[in-house]
Amino acid sequence: MNSFAALQESDTPGAALSRQRWNTNTTSAVSHELTAIIMAGYGNSLYPLTEESNLPKALLPVANRPMLWYPLQWCEKAGFGNVMVVCQTEAEDKIAAWLKNKYEGKIKVNLEAPSSADETAGTADVLRILKDKIKSDFVVLSTDQVMDMQPYALLDFHRIHSPTITSVFYTPAGDAAPKDAENMMYVGYDDQKKRLLYVKAEADVEDELEVRMSLLWKYPRLRVSTKLQDAHVYIFKRWVLDLIARNEKISSIKGDLMPLLAKAQYQSLLVEKVGIPELTRTNSPPLLPTQQNTTHSLGDDYAGNPIKISLLVYPKNNFCARANTPASYAELNRHLAKQNGETLGDARIAGSADVSPKAQVGADSLVGEHSKVDERTSLKRSIIGQHCVVGRNVKISNSIIMDRVVIEDGAKIEGCTVCTNVRIGSKAQLTNCEVGGGFVVEEGFQAKGEKLVEFRDMDMDSDSD
Prior knowledge:
The protein is of the alpha/beta class. Helix 9 (about 240-245) runs antiparallel to helix 12 (about 275-285).
């Protein structure tokens, strides 16, 4: 049994006590131990869904809830009383309005907007800017990540191994698996010691993968996988911020910080070069006796090297996914729509929605508040947002329809993502399209595999992470 499953399923007194501790919502204890940070970048890699006329990534609907709702719920379940949400200045007003007017959680959210889209600041750059506001060890989550991991499983795993960083990786399923070299990774790890030892994007590998002999001598059980993906869930020691602050070349957590510290686990000269011994001596308190005993019992060589990256691999029978591309966003919505349809039953159609008795709404479809669906319309494996109007004899399948969309009689929509305030004319046919916010599809128009957006002069730079 892997360490995650052991933490989830163990019936030992210690595990039972851990579950009881988290169930009692010990807010002050967790908040004192860790700072929770949710990275909510604007999401240019999701274009045109995050185009200016629509929504920032954090507010894109996932099963008719804003994407940001999911990591906030996870943090609340973990017992955090305060959470820092980091966004770009272009998204600040929209996110602040949602937090003020619609968010119903118990967490106090501190919204920070330290950079704009034009500055192309990476996740590590953002941490450098916010360094003085982070006083403890900290958890970093991505707003586009949804997981069913119990908080105690991750946090207790981190406590047991007491590493510099705990990182979470998972195996994407189905259409969510990356198909391009830019997003695929070589991940090297020691499964017995739960150590992450090597991370490199496939796009950075030319003819062959090179691995240092010093790594193989120190970790002869090294395994390399191209199936694992970074979940963008990390727990860091506070001193890592000081390392980021003194090394301005570290721009991205995934692209710069993680590869650097992975190498530092087996390259002693690198440890000295970047000043890690000084940082750990200055910032790290001595281990408690219980921590010392635990570390020794794991048979780890942590005492000989101040760097340790623990790896928690998400089990395949649990759910973990990211919505960082239009395809993965659509797949996540379809998964949660099906899951919610199975658990909600008739409640999958909002109480304020007006759905004709002669309309067909599949068990794996959702209809949002104050939306209207007219007669002889069919919805299959689809999500209808709030305040939408769907006319007669409309066929919608495998699609996400966001808020305030009007779809006129006889339209056919298959495999599409339709952003807010769109109007689709009668008898239009769209297949595998992404329709930007406010776009008007003319009557009888037909398109397949296209991005339909209003022309706007804008920077199409990709996200840093």
